[in-house]
């Protein structure tokens, strides 16, 4: 085991570290939450990562996304994330997909290749498709609920989707998953009531005249992402 993983091995043991090295995890959405998932999985010794996102880093990402710096503005997020991963673990196998995951693009992915799937995207249709594909392939999946407009990271928790409350996104997901006959889903969510963001020219949709961009902080999506990564590592190594 390489020296840089020695502190992790003290807690998990040699066999668990071998499991992590042999695992492939797909992270759909490499933004505020997903970027921290990728970072922590790379630092935990996961041997293969599939990164799926078609967005590019912009200046407004700098306040909360670990891949976003002045240097990476304009880069595809998956490119910036891959560079960080390989700086941490040059032996990690990283596959990039510059695509938004939607029902129209889902056939590009073979979920049976994965040991774990992370849903860290924003669109409900995409989230539902990821979850359905993972369930059909009998692959563990964990889904991020809403982290926008929240400022208390201590209120995040892990639960089954049907045990969630308060979170508006979780409410929609419960309804849609029930329609599809999906009986359980591990999620990370917060019971914090969303804060109403201040109105500004930047977050008002010009067509609908409604707020279109949620507020966010450096510490809220990062905590959700790190919780997700912890769940994955513990599940893959069967340590709880």
List the keywords.
7-stranded mixed sheet, Rossmann fold, 240 residues, alpha/beta, 7 helices, 34% helix
Describe it for me?
With 240 residues, the chain is α/β, with parallel strands linked by helices. The chain contains seven helices and seven strands. It has a seven-stranded mixed β-sheet with strand order 3-2-1-4-5-7-6, with helices on both faces. Strand 2, helix 4 and strand 3 form a beta-alpha-beta unit. Helix 1 crosses helix 2 (14-21).
Report a brief summary of the structure.
With 240 residues, the protein is an alpha/beta fold.
Tally of contiguous helical segments? 7
Q: What is the top-level CATH class? A: Alpha Beta
Portion of residues within helices: 25-40%
Strand order of the largest sheet: 3-2-1-4-5-7-6
Give the topology:
Elements lengths: L5 H7 L1 H8 L2 E5 L5 H11 L3 E5 L24 H12 L4 E5 L18 E4 L4 H13 L4 E4 L11 E5 L7 H12 L6 E5 L29 H18 L3
Parallel strand pairs: 1-2, 1-4, 2-3, 4-5, 5-7
Antiparallel strand pairs: 6-7
């Amino acid at each position: 085991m390489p020296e840089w993983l020695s502190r992790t091995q003290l807690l998990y043991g040699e066999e668990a570290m071998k499991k992590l090295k042999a695992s492939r995890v797909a992270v759909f959405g490499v933004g505020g939450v997903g970027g921290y998932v990728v970072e922590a999985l790379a630092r935990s010794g996961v041997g293969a990562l599939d990164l799926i996102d078609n967005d590019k880093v912009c200046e407004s990402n700098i306040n909360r996304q670990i891949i976003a710096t002045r240097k990476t503005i304009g880069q595809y997020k998956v490119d910036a994330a891959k560079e960080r991963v390989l700086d941490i673990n040059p032996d990690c196998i990283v596959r990039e997909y510059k695509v938004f995951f939607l029902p129209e693009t889902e056939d590009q992915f073979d979920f049976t290749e994965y040991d774990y799937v992370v849903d860290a995207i924003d669109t409900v249709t995409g989230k539902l498709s990821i979850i359905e594909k993972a369930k059909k392939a009998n692959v563990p999946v964990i889904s991020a609920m809403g982290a926008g407009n929240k400022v208390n990271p201590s209120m995040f928790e892990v639960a089954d989707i049907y045990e969630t409350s308060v979170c508006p996104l979780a409410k929609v997901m419960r309804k849609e998953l029930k329609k599809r006959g999906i009986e359980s889903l591990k999620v990370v969510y917060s019971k914090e009531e969303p804060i109403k963001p201040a109105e500004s020219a930047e977050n008002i949709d010009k067509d609908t005249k409604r707020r279109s961009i949620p507020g966010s902080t450096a510490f809220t999506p990062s905590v959700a992402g790190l919780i997700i990564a912890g769940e994955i590592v513990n599940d893959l190594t069967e340590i709880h």
